Amino acid sequence: MSTPTPPETPRITVQANGPYLVLGGLPLRRKRAVVSEHAEPLAWRTEDVVHISPGYALCRCGGSANKPFCDGTHKGADFDGTEAAPTDRYRNRAKRYPGTGITVLDDRRICEHAGFCGNRLTNVWKMTGSTDDSAVRGQVMSMIERCPSGALSYEVEGEAVEPDLPAQVSVIADGPLWVTGCVPVERSDGQALETRNRVTLCRCGGSSIKPLCDGTHKEIGFRDTPP
Q: pLDDT (tens digit, 9 = 90+) per residue, 101-135?
């Protein structure tokens, strides 16, 4: 009997001036923010499963007519996918905000502007100064855990605390790809990005730190055309 071929390790490889190649059978889902009557993001809602297969290519240039999948538009559009994402450790870049029983870490450069870090009354940074109240501390933790990019994170007693997220790729409505569950991402030049529990990848084509999202999709009014 022949030995069964082991399943491919889940990972994402960035193609030079081209799409994301997603390998290892990662499920692809759609997610949308649940918002309040004041348009404040409150939670994430999974809308549907888009695709599950051993491998698939996702649009990175923003021009595909079959989003989120690549249809080859990047070739005719002369897409410049030059990658400038940092490959060093997040903890070395992030600014630290000490509180009571918690330390908030923040790397603004990789923020995708999802908006879970604040509301019309306050925000995570202001609340960190009031974390001697455990109710406030718990709210700060919950808000940070909904940050898709991992720009915000927190430590308790010097140890990082992360939400338990599945290994998958989620398409955020009119926004980036949200990769969760410590899926490795490799740049087209072979350099690996730091493997993290939460990462957002640009799919509007305009980020200055490709392949990571920097929130440019909001500035340019990027919109989805679901397949």
A: 999 999 999 999 999 999 999 999 999 999 999 99
Asked if 97 and 128 touch (Cβ cutoff 8 Å), the reply is yes
Domain spans of the chain?
A: 11-34+44-86+165-220, 90-161
Question: What length does the chain have?
Answer: 227
Any bridge partners for residue 12, and if so which?
22, 185
> Residues 186, 188, 191, 192: what is their CA dihedral angle, to the nearest 10 degrees?
-10
Q: pLDDT tens for residues 130-172?
A: 999 999 999 999 999 999 999 999 999 999 999 999 999 999 9
